[in-house]
Amino acid sequence: MGLLDRFKKVKDGLSRTRSTFVDRITKVIARKTKIDDELIDEIEETLLSSDIGFDATGRIISDIRARVKAEGYEDSSMLRGLLKEEIAKYLIEPNGTAGLSAKPKVIMIVGVNGVGKTTTVGKLSYNFKSEGKNVLIAAADTFRAAANEQLKVWADRAGVEIIQQAPGTDPGAVAYDAVSAAKARNVDVVLIDTAGRLHTKTNLMEELKKITRVIRKVMPDAPHEVYLVLDAVTGQNGLMQARQFLDAAGVTAIVLTKLDGTAKGGIVIAISQELKLPVKYIGVGEGIDDLQPFDRTTFVDALFSEAEEENNIQGSAAKEA
Ligand code: GDP
Ligand code: MG
Q1: CA of 39 to the centre of ligand 1 (A)
Q2: Are 86 and 40 in contact (CB under 8 A)?
Q3: If we measure between CA atoms, which residue out of 41, 44, 46 comes closest to residue 27?
Q4: pLDDT tens profile 56-97
Q5: Ligand 1 pocket residue status of 257, Cβ below 6 Å
Q6: How far is the CA of 242 from the centre of ligand 1 (A)?
Q7: What is the value of pTM for the model shown?
């Protein structure tokens, strides 16, 4: 997928957020020609009502106030650009070094029920496969009979292999088999899908720890990454649920799904600020090619994009071609 297609996917996925958050900002700014305290207060209120979170909003606004003073901005039309820069500053990008040389690289996918773990495993397989990598999926959500079937459908769509066992099998055993098989078969990436709910929440955390312990018997430095999947639609509530996973599962990055289904895209900023973890991928639709790597420039440009900017990007893409 080319750069322009990626941008378009992200931009389309953010359309609901753009039409609430960014349009509101634009209206606030348009009301005045000169920057004053009151105008910045109104921008602060808009940020607060957009799931960006209290901490991140506070930082962004105090930075903007400081810059307006120090750099002498007067014209309110400068605020849009300032806001873009400040929002980008607080988004944490993945550093991309975890497990870089590991073979297989083992990635465990965790999160509560319904956030999009299985779908993400399917889309990730497709992404890795498209990069020419050899992928093996481990079906370690063994608690629901339907889970295996759903994952098998994704594995087939992506054209990758899957290791699964009868429902009720120990999830650690499935993960162990998959990592062992991957080593034997010279696989590049193992994706472990896990359950989102057991009988009680404590049990789930214990189960995730156990999966980790068991795969370390085959590969002591695995899992190389643990992605916590969060559903953007749940906004700030999702962040609360997230915390219990951080330590128990050793989460290394966030996958934020369903951005296309919500106006709460500002949650990306709250995640970076409150969980101090990079957002690695964003889900912008239900299709197999709808999981996009997150980078803050693309994200902010897509969020604030207007027809004019899109033309510029199309213009430069045309020049590249
Ligand atoms: P799991 O319980 O965490 O494994 O969640 P699933 O992978 O089964 O997904 C639950 C629902 O969310 C399914 O209907 C998916 O199609 C949907 N879903 C997952 N990711 C996205 C996304 O990025 N956008 C949209 N619109 N739907 C998604
Ligand atoms: Mg699932």
Answers
A1: 39
A2: no
A3: 46
A4: 999 999 999 999 999 999 999 999 999 999 999 999 888 777
A5: yes
A6: 17
A7: 0.92
